[in-house]
Specification:
This protein is α+β, with helices and mostly antiparallel strands. Helix content is 50%, strand content 7%. It is built from 29 helices and 17 strands. It starts with 15 loop residues before the first strand and ends with a helix. One of its GO terms (cellular component) is lysosomal membrane.
Length: 785
């Protein structure tokens, strides 16, 4: 399929925890399922696979879910691409594997060693994942900084040094121009031999745009040709995968390699995107690849997704250990050059005061409004991209956006510089070592005017100039981020959202600071702000604004506050951060409860049941199940009176992914559920290994073969592929309970019965359609749009 059609974006958790597997938040993605016309094998009516142990009575027999024969059938129990895993069957397989290991470990020293290897394999996986993730994160940071500076010049003494590293050892830098040293040459100096003048400016402008377009073109070309799954953030898809959906290759080695390379190029191109979201995708690729080295994980899809609603204690410890290893590696590499693990280390010398909660809450309101506006605007643009010819030319789109970004960004120093450096400058508190325009304040010294880097003084012209430039940068960032997120290159949203919030916060901070300086006798400032004393810290406002805007976009709360602590190290300001983040969430939720990642999941038609959505309607299971009135009858198999020809005819004439097995057409008593894939594999295996299997051979799912005439061909036993405890509900079960069951147990479908008789089936896709219908949305627009 053409990569132009592949999806563009890009941690629902939802794996499983013991028997209550988390929501396998996806159902049968059929048709043109994703953003890119995936032609999956799952039909709209798909009866998607082995369910979890059914009802309360069925749970006790779940350990015998597979009822294996003497020899397991190869391929049975595996999943096709774009299908949902069976959480409970995978859990049962893992239990059987664990029992087998425990029963054998006392037989010999070798078996005991194998049991130790199995027990420690989880720790080995997270150790390798932490090492790889930390190393790749460090390499990406260093490479992106170097390529970003390459747009402006080159270090003659060492080509591999970025601008800052090039001038570290120079003794010829000045306080005002600490970034200028003889070793670093701009492109105008190299090509024209001059550093100033109109010609020099035009040459630097041209080279800046040239390199930006080159990096963007190379990034989108690599993604298109080698790994279409490397585009976007990856977080919506990872949320879906973690909840149990299969997307082959999305976490593969090619995706990892191309995403790592193109992430560096995309960030260096100057596009309004970040690398934090794609780094989650990179880390998940590492974990997935290393998991294949250990049978416990390679042969069990649920074990790979061991993140759940309840977050098992062993997973918590392993996650902590993986983070510890990654942090150790990152600290060893020291990509930020400050011997710290945080990206924006801040150290404020003034505490915050109670009256400042008001501007902090205002920043929260701004963050919520920005988040709601961005989600609607970005989703509208992505939907238009999918429905018009423009979406068929991803390379042209990336080049166009990159060209506009570079051309508009160069004249403004706050949009020209790396976004991470911009945020760092906005977060920084003004001190004697700061030479930024934002720190130019007037103070009276011996009757003369000087510009020391202090706060709570009258702003100098440099501050007002910076305010205008920041205002223009704010408008530019808002517009370009809307059109950039969703391009066919790796694109994260954390850094752009933080930059928008940091710009707005710094502007508000300076405004409050000047208000306190000129009106220190107001009742708001009188008690806390003494004349000539530091009172307001504009950098703190930038940090609070960044958290508020990020919260407005993602709708995260507690985890977001922790992330900001992690990025900045500012643990003293928990109350301002929490006030702003909660306000942004409340304001954003007033316009819609979806965060940007959930909105993209819905846009792409991913089969994902969001645990945050409440279902409060009074419908029953019989209102949602299929078949409905005037529909064709439910396709079923009987337990012992079908021939192989009849079974194959049902498979060929339908596109369902599974079939209920009943005692007889007359009784409609439920026996179990059989997957289409397992039936097909079992038939092929029987024909290959057993003689006498013919089209008129009797197929049976019972323990013992039915009584047959003496001249009958050899029967085919398929009991080993039968799920004898499918999850069932009665037709009067409230849909509120059914939806909760699907979320908590990660079901793909459940069967509906009445007095033990089979009536119909409810799939996850039916659930999603019904929820859309109850929300007055087009049910068909939810899936495969």
């Amino acid at each position: 399929m053409e990569s132009e059609q592949l999806f563009n974006r890009g941690f629902g958790r939802n794996s499983y925890n013991s028997i209550t597997s988390a929501s396998s938040d996806e159902e049968l993605l059929d048709g043109a399922g994703v953003i890119m016309d995936f032609h999956t094998t799952e039909d709209d009516n798909l009866l998607d696979g082995d369910t979890s142990p059914g009802t309360a009575a069925g749970a006790s027999s779940s350990t015998h879910l597979l009822d294996l024969l003497e020899e397991p059938i190869p391929g049975v129990g595996t999943y096709d691409d774009f299908h949902t895993i069976d959480w409970v069957r995978e859990k049962c397989k893992d239990r059987e594997r664990h029992r087998k290991i425990n029963s054998k470990k006392k037989e010999s020293a070798w078996e005991f060693t194998k049991s130790l290897y199995d027990a420690w394999s989880g720790w080995l996986v997270v150790t390798l994942t932490g090492l790889a993730s930390g190393a790749l994160a460090g390499v990406i940071d260093i490479a992106a900084d170097w390529l970003n500076d390459l747009k402006e010049g080159v270090c003659l003494s060492a080509m591999w040094f970025n601008h800052e590293q090039c001038c570290w050892d120079s003794n010829e830098t000045t306080f005002a121009e600490r970034d200028k040293c003889p070793q670093w040459k701009t492109w105008a100096e190299l090509i024209l031999g001059q550093a100033e003048g109109p010609g020099s400016y035009i040459m630097n402008y041209f080279m800046f745009t040239f390199w930006a377009l080159s990096f963007a073109f190379l990034a989108v070309s690599l993604v298109k040709v080698f790994a279409p799954y490397a585009c976007g953030s990856g977080i919506p898809e990872i949320k879906t995968i973690l909840s149990g959906f299969i997307i082959r290759g999305y976490l593969g080695k090619w995706t990892l390699m191309i995403k790592t390379i193109t992430l560096v190029l995309a960030v260096a191109s100057g596009l309004s995107l970040g690398k934090e979201g794609p780094l989650v995708h990179v880390a998940c690729c590492c974990g997935n690849i290393f998991s294949y080295l250990f049978p416990k994980y390679s042969k069990n899809e649920a074990k790979k997704r061991e993140v759940s609603y309840y977050f098992p204690l062993k997973t918590l410890w392993r996650s902590f250990f993986a983070a510890l290893v990654a942090a150790f590696v990152l600290r060893s590499i020291n990509p930020f050059g400050n011997s710290r693990l945080v990206l924006f280390y801040v150290e404020y010398h003034t505490p915050w005061y109670l009256f400042e909660l008001f501007p902090f809450i205002l920043l929260g309101v701004f963050g919520g409004l920005w988040g709601a506006f961005f989600i609607r605007a970005n989703i509208a643009w992505c939907r238009r991209r999918k429905s018009t010819r423009f979406g068929k030319y991803p390379v042209l789109e990336v080049i166009t956006v990159a060209a506009i970004t570079a051309i508009v960004a160069f004249p403004n120093p706050y949009t020209r510089q790396n976004t991470s450096e911009l945020i760092k400058e906005l977060f920084t508190d003004c001190g004697p070592l700061e030479s930024s325009q934002l720190c130019q304040y007037r103070s009276q010294m011996n009757g003369s005017q000087a510009y020391p880097a202090g706060s709570d003084a009258a702003a100098a012209p440099g501050v007002y100039s910076a305010m205008w430039q920041l205002s223009l940068a704010l408008v530019f960032k808002i517009i370009m981020t809307i059109f950039t997120f969703g391009l066919k290159v790796p694109s994260g949203l954390f850094i752009p959202s933080m930059a928008i919030g940091a710009i707005a916060g710094r502007i508000v901070g300076i405004a409050v600071e000047q208000l306190a300086y000129y009106h220190h006798d107001w009742f708001l400032f009188r008690e806390w702000c003494e004349v000539g004393a530091d009172c307001i810290t504009p950098g703190l406002y930038a940090m609070v604004g960044a958290a508020a805007c990020l919260g407005g976009v993602t709708r995260m709360t507690v985890s977001l506050v922790v992330i900001v602590f992690e990025l900045t190290g500012g643990l003293e300001y928990i109350v301002p951060l929490m006030a702003a983040v909660m306000t942004s969430k409340w304001v954003g939720d007033a316009f819609g409860r979806e965060g940007i990642y959930e909105a993209h999941i819905r846009l792409n038609g991913y089969p994902f049941l969001d645990a945050k959505e409440e279902f409060t309607h009074t419908t029953l299971a019989r209102d949602v199940m299929r078949p409905r009135r005037n529909d064709t009858p439910l396709a079923v198999l009987t337990q012992d009176d079908m021939t192989l020809a009849e079974l194959q005819n049902i498979i060929s004439e339908t596109s369902y992914n599974g079939f209920p097995v009943i005692v007889s057409k007359e009784s409609q008593r439920l026996v179990g559920f059989a997957l289409r894939r397992d039936i097909t594999i079992a038939i092929e295996n029987a024909r290959r290994k057993q003689e006498g299997i013919m089209l008129n051979s009797r197929v049976y799912f019972t323990q013992h073969a039915p009584t047959l005439p003496a001249d009958s061909p050899r029967p085919l036993k398929l009991r080993s592929i039968l799920d004898m405890s499918p999850f069932t509900v009665t037709d009067h079960t409230p849909m509120e309970i059914v939806v909760d069951i699907f979320r908590k147990l990660g079901l793909r479908q459940c069967l509906v019965t009445h007095n033990g008789r089979l009536l119909g089936i409810i799939t996850k896709k039916d659930i999603l359609r019904h929820m859309a219908q109850m929300a007055n949305q087009d049910p068909e627009s939810i899936m495969f749009n």
